[in-house]
Amino acid sequence: MPINVWRIAKSLATAAFLAVMVTIALFPLVYAILASFKDNIELFVGSASILPEQFRPDNWVQAWTRARFARYTLNSVMYSTGTTLLSVLNAAMVGYVFARGRFPGRQIVVALFTSTMFISVGSLTLYPILEMARLLHIHRGLHGLIIINGIGVNVAGYYLVSRYINTIPRELDEAAVVDGCSFFQVWLRIIFPLSKPVLATVGLLAFIGAWNEYLMPFVFTLGNPNMSTLTVGVTSLKGDAMSITAYGLMLAGSAMSLIPLIVMFIIVNRYFVHGLTSGALKG
Fold it and tell me: Could you tell me the pTM of the whole model?
């Protein structure tokens, strides 16, 4: 087979494979958005078409007003933003220590932090975290959860930041030390400003994680529905044994919850890929 024909066939096969993968990934999202404009009758007994017979914005209006999604959205924004800011600061400082710090037992400390990746929040750490929050009197609201998640162990963030810092020439550190900067001042004046791309990546990952989290916000806001986040609020629309679940309303709420994530990704998209790949350039 001629080389040009082989290349064309390979390109077509790759394009077809990617098209199938994109369709599989996007179909549930597109279906959920379109189904949010249907009522329960059309969802269950209507035609098999994914397009609604008539676009009804009622579910979106009710989700924002009657279902208190405006309040849930505000809670989610405050919770995710607070968690993101603390997580970025946490990852920036710990990642700097891992990359530039030299102290006895450093490898053991790094290994201990890394081992926490294999511990699920739902299996072992939920009760200790809740008990610690109770002793500190921060267990009845999102403010306590912001503190716990923000200053908690963030292994992925530490790894990304430390690998990125390793690409920054050490000569900058040495020059700053000669000028009289301490270890902390080197981080504050040199390393931190140069780490914006990777910190944007860490921030985006932290924001998405906090925005989509369900278990911890549910536990910390139990008995206080005014503090519920969007993920908790959407599931609260599910009917019990005596009522019918408004699936269109739930789908509208789920679609509505995606908007801040899309906006956040657009804001930091310029740094995201660079922050993920820059650590692979060296060491």
Answer: 0.80
